[in-house]
Structure prediction request, 644 residues.
Amino acid sequence: MQIDEIFEADRRLNNKKRITPLLNSPFLDEIADRKIFIKAECLQHTGSFKFRGAFSAISSIPVEKRKKGVIAYSSGNHAQGVALAAKIHEIHATIIMPEDAPEIKINNTRDLGAEVILYDRLSESREKIGERISEERLLSLIPPYDHTDVIAGQGTIGLEIASQADENGIEKADVLVCCGGGGLTSGIAVALSKLMPNFVTRPVEPEGFDDVVRSLKSGERQTNEKMSGGLCDAIITPTPGELTFPLMKKYCGEGIVVTDEEVMKAIALAFTRLRIVVEPGGAVALAAALFHTKSYNNETVIAVVSGGNIDPDIFRKAIELI
Amino acid sequence: MQIDEIFEADRRLNNKKRITPLLNSPFLDEIADRKIFIKAECLQHTGSFKFRGAFSAISSIPVEKRKKGVIAYSSGNHAQGVALAAKIHEIHATIIMPEDAPEIKINNTRDLGAEVILYDRLSESREKIGERISEERLLSLIPPYDHTDVIAGQGTIGLEIASQADENGIEKADVLVCCGGGGLTSGIAVALSKLMPNFVTRPVEPEGFDDVVRSLKSGERQTNEKMSGGLCDAIITPTPGELTFPLMKKYCGEGIVVTDEEVMKAIALAFTRLRIVVEPGGAVALAAALFHTKSYNNETVIAVVSGGNIDPDIFRKAIELI
Prediction:
């Protein structure tokens, strides 16, 4: 994985992705006693960074093969990203989603024109279903993270962070990234390791689903005990990716683990102080920036808010904390 | 009022204001059967466009006079804008606020370093209090809208809309603007009348507080019967400004009036579809774009979302509509 692949993904995404703003608030700085900047990727098309990787991957499939359509398996955000990216390319998308995914994500995926196939997260393997259908229909599989073009697409956020950090005079920073399978984290880490050698990319995970944090500590890929049931549904993955883990091992600093309570507080503070809507999985990095200041060293921290597709009931509970 | 004054304000605000994004969603387009773009000014510093006008006005006061400090009267958003702009200029700010303003706005204004003086909206005149204190302390009064440098500051949003419309290939559009005293509306209208002759700027007001809409219709400044009690507290003003009304008369199209119910729906849709937090007064233009399509003619509409400082209880009620 080279930074050139990220630059190429960035060219394919030109005028398609939204360049999301880098936000800040004196009130958040005060809580952390640090300068906190927030890369508001919840404002990306479909409400999460996943659109970038999906579009990057679809746009790099040879035209004839692409016309046959694409398939993806996802708990929600990747699904919507693939659906919209397929729609823009005017091709068919088949999406395999767990039946316990938030209803709004299932509906949105359908409304974006995709065919949705539901499966049982506990008894079936989405990978096996995906492979079978894609062979039958000659579809191109767009995996959620373990794919070079997907990682390169997510890495375009790293390019934007580098240029926005320049504009804001940020020379040294910890860059905290919400981490599931590691596509977003490794893409950003590759970009920043070249462009911003004084930046350290740090994966952040929710308690109980900290496979990447433990894997980086032990040097070997670790797995999570549970496969579902967490508040941060969007970033629950069994284990770091085969492609993403070596990249994170090479380019990332130590990981950080946050609690569900910290995540809910971060969602509430993003509401009052930044006026953005953040989903639990998308808030873990902001939670770490606000409440785990002892886990990082730089006086400036950049937290990537990776998504904003939250269940209204959970959001209501979060803002009751104000 | 010339566009050159807006260009000058833009230079003073360079690197101080946030260039807020122009957002969109296929789901909103579908509701209105139009292309809807949203200028997300709720993402501005302090959560509303008011920072622009306040900074523009303070930065144009001669240095020696400025050092003595500034004073403003405001129901909340102008207060926070003036407080932050004064802080950046390292001068003292005195803010006169109604005692029934949302608590969060009063607290934020104090936390931004301003001295807050509360008054009774029904029995006292904020203008008289403001004039008395500013004479005693030799402060410069920063009015909320009826001031050339304030209007020029708000007009910088018009410059951004023009350039973002170009990027998005928008050639003709209705531009709907949340309207209180008319500073934002007239500033944007002046900018767009010169830069985008095919754009029509249209003030939008909440039912019961439609002084500008009625004034434009009759050709004379009209007043509202009530002075408080509406959902859209941030944009309740007695009558159009002396400076802003002639500008709106010259440069604006017909106004639009929306109901509180439409405002609440617009807040809910901004939550699910744009992942931004919008306050009632900041949502009237989006409500008009979504639900009053018969009131405008162009196939593309740009709605300015002017602020995001909402009471959490009202926000919870809005998202219950989903």
In short: The radius of gyration of chain B is 18 Å.
